[in-house]
Amino acid sequence: MLEALNPQPQDKILQLIALYRDDKRAGKIDLGVGVYKDPTGLTPVMRAVKAAEKRLWEVETTKTYTGLAGEPAYNAALVRMILGETDRAASVATPGGTGAIRQALELIRLANPQATVWLSAPTWPNHPSIVKFLGMKMAEYRYFDAKTCGVNFEGMKEDLGRVAPGDVVLLHGCCHNPTGANLNAAQWAETVKILQKQGAIPFVDLAYQGFGDGLEEDAAATRLIADSFPEVLIAAPCSKNFGIYRERTGILIALTSPDRKAVVQGNLNFLNRQNFSFPPDHGARLVTMILEDAALTADWKAELEEVRLNMLTLRQNLADELRRLTNSDRYDFVATHRGMFSRLGLSEAQVNRLRDEHAIYMVGDSRINIAGLNARTVPILAQAIVAVGG
Ligand code: LMR
């Protein structure tokens, strides 16, 4: 049987991790996978997470299964963090953000197998990969303007105007991955109007809440969408904003009408049961402890803010350095982008040269992880970009 298997295409981001690991050059720089690193290059366990873990070890009395949908307190705390108060949310705990996306897509397929899932061009490579794997219909809407490295809003609007009623449109709630280019408030409002007119179902991937303009600010678009549509799906991991990547902690929220909520919840539970039964709980428990304790919440928010501001400083420094070296403003977009990533607009050949000649690793589409930089490496990257003709 197994001899019938064909090799699967490599995931570009994961491939890069292996290439970087195998590079023996001293001073190599990793701007690949979206993992936060502090100025010393470490991905720290956040202080509040450590404190919660210590407390959990003391108070935890059982490792028996959690609820099929997760612990109600976790779901409630996270729904509140993302949406504020709402009584329209069915939700399930999932293994990370990918688990939430997968469950959302399976829910869509269950409800409407004919629905086309619209993805931004470009998007996180795992989005199209999972849609394709599930055999669902897929379409793209223009998003990135390669000339300005900002959003091609005219193109986006035109393409969203072709969405059919009942189609699902996947939107990055904040901090677009891989480009770093985001809609402003007026553009979000316009997008909502178009999607309402088309009769689309919005599906928000909110992987980076707290990494862009702030925890509340980054939820604004998602909240606007929640208030504007009868049905919305939201996939959110705690991997990034709580720094608990390997704990696989996420949530899928399905907003619906009160009379449909029980059936929707039942379907979410059913999908969890089919795919992995009970969701993981350790990370979820830590998040709950933090969000239910005022002192831990305050400390977590303060550290998250340090993380966000550190990335903003790195953005500004890189933009300044490139402005100085190129004597032009063509990289100013790096400072206006938000989140963990910026797509620099370099060619694949230039990206390869950066890797081969300068030991600088970024994804082939020239996406850099801003948090992979520090005060020492910002000028090194800027010089290397110029050296490869960027
Ligand atoms: C990324 O985009 O680098 C992260 O979301 C990590 C991943 O799983 O791809």
Largest sheet: 7 strands, mixed
Domain module tally: 2
**Total number of helices:** 14
Radius of gyration: 21 Å
Termini Cα gap? 49 Å
Kindly name the structural category.
alpha/beta
Beta-strand content: 5-15%
Mind telling me the CATH class of the largest domain? Alpha Beta
Residue-averaged pLDDT, rounded? 97
CATH architecture of the largest domain: 3-Layer(aba) Sandwich
What's the order of the H and E elements? HEHHEHEHEEEHEHEHEEHHHHEHEEH
Q: Give the strand order, joined by hyphens, for the main sheet.
A: 2-10-9-8-7-3-4
Low-confidence stretches: none
Under CATH, the homologous superfamily of the largest domain reads Type I PLP-dependent aspartate aminotransferase-like (Major domain)
Morphology: globular
The molecules bound to the chains, other than polymers, are: (2S)-2-hydroxybutanedioic acid
What do we call the CATH topology of the largest domain?
Answer: Aspartate Aminotransferase, domain 2
Fraction of residues in helices?
Answer: 40-55%
